[in-house]
Amino acid sequence: RSSWLLLAPLLTPPVPVITAPPCSLCPEGAHRFQWIRNLVPEFGISSSHVKVLSSPVEFYELLKVQIKAAKQRVVMASLYLGTGLLEQELVDCLEETLERSLQAKSSPDLRVSILLDYTRGSRGRKNSRTMLIPLLQRFPEKVRVSLFHTPNLRGLLRLLIPERFNETIGLQHIKVYLFDDNVILSGANLSDLYFTNRQDRYVLLQDSPEIADFFTELVDAIGDVSLQLQQDDTVQMMEGMVHPYQGDKVAYCEIANRRVMEVINSARTRQELLHAKTFHSNHSGSSLLSQQGSQASGDLKPEPDTWIYPLIQMKPFGIQIDEVVTETLLTEAERDARIYLTTGYFNLTQAYMDLILGTRAEYRILLASPEVNGFFGAKGVAGAIPAAYVYIEHQFYSEVCYLQQQERVQLQEYSRAGWTFHAKGLWLYLAGSDLPCLTLIGSPNFGYRSVHRDLEAQVAIVTENKALQQQLHQEQEQLYLCSGVVSMSTFEQPNRYVKLWVKLVTPLIKNFF
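Given the sequence above, the corresponding structure tokens read:
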């Protein structure tokens, strides 16, 4: 994230909107989560199409392989694109693939769409924009670069807040990387640290055209309400579109809400029709019409044993699906169920904290130790950010102890020499089960920013397949192996000392990081 906003105490944080959970969980196995499809499209796939990655290097190499193999589309949404040699190699891969598509008859229609955050992508003289301009100049008809600018950064506020600090108001934080019909969901950005020694999470959904179509449409929708990067490094809005910080804020947010909800609702309708058709086909017995229809469509896909639910959170636009689903999962988790929750930035919303402390499931919460926090060792005010997270962690742990919940709610700190920690998400183990049947993976950190300020997306993956459950379990175990359990003695260590000014300032500005 970004350094603290010095003007934060002068700003009025947005008022949280409280939404009632949709309904309680159904009783049996993975099917208990089908209520999620009342909110978002449900994509049924085979578990053989899901691959869980474990390392930054694996993630980086897969990006390059997928870019080189793309024939129809490359769609990448990230906070920013870094400016180092590894990032340049990615851009070179894109250039080679686009060049080949110009020559080849097999893939003349390749399109590349990149969505980044405007403020983060414009930071410094050499930045995400300057990295991508050569592609725009060489392939103007095939490449689109959209830069989302939050509507909340405008007027005098926009003029007063310097670079870096302006990123605290709101960001495009979604991380989706798709290539033809293959989709990578992650919390990782397109930067060298995320390719080498910054631990995150990554899942590949292979040969999943409906899911790829959904995220293509979602990125297109956000791109349509974003600034478009031009070949001369200027930006402009699409013709007829309300400007995010010069135009009317209410009108802009209404248009953005409408565009994104159109994508969600149209995909949901498509999937419901597909589900109904499949259900009818499967229950038609020896119906000749059913058999002919199945043969005509070439539908030889195996029965789905895994379901993907995209969860979108864009509170500036009045969209809070991820928040509703997450709160419902925490609320309805039964006694003896186990939830492993991880975040690189431990700054839970009050609602999430209340649910964790007030419900019945067991929690194992993995967070960054100060040394693996991305801001550790930073200069200036930013160098105190790890101490602020320690203070927030200490307050929460003290509350756990006060309520005598130490056995049920356990904190664990990730620590690994030479690495930083950025993983986020959760794994849900039903009571009596040694394997998770659900995971959340994507960009949200479960903090105030994720819920109220930024554009976020993750997926809920629900599976009945034991092999995929084992993959998810191993992913969780691998992350938690690098951790130690937090106790009161943890906060007595010299490196956990928090200066008085940090304690005083943190409550005022915790909603900005």
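Residues 34-41+304-511 form a domain with the Endonuclease; Chain A fold (CATH 3.30.870.10). Try to locate this feature in the token string yourself.
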